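User: Hello! I'm new to structural biology and keep hearing that structure can be predicted from sequence alone. Could you demonstrate with Large ribosomal subunit protein uL30? Please show me the input and the output so I can see what each looks like.

Assistant: Of course. The first part below is the input, the amino acid sequence of Large ribosomal subunit protein uL30. The second part is the output, the predicted structure written as tokens.
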Amino acid sequence: MAQIQIKLVKSVIDRPERQKRTVKALGLGKIGSTKEVEYTPQVAGMIAAVQHLLEVTAL
């Protein structure tokens, strides 16, 4: 599968607990943190759930 880079660009403050946990499960903490992950169906679903907080770049 392809690698993608995800970056947290908006805060998780005042977001539902489920979205906070999804961002943490993706390996992101503070605003501006980035992570390279393998693009799998599971990761795609997690990204879709919090896409308004993330910036996604294909590598």
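User: So the tokens describe the shape?

Assistant: Right, they're a compact way of writing down the 3D structure. Reading them back into a model, for example: The beta strands are 3-8, 34-38, 54-58.
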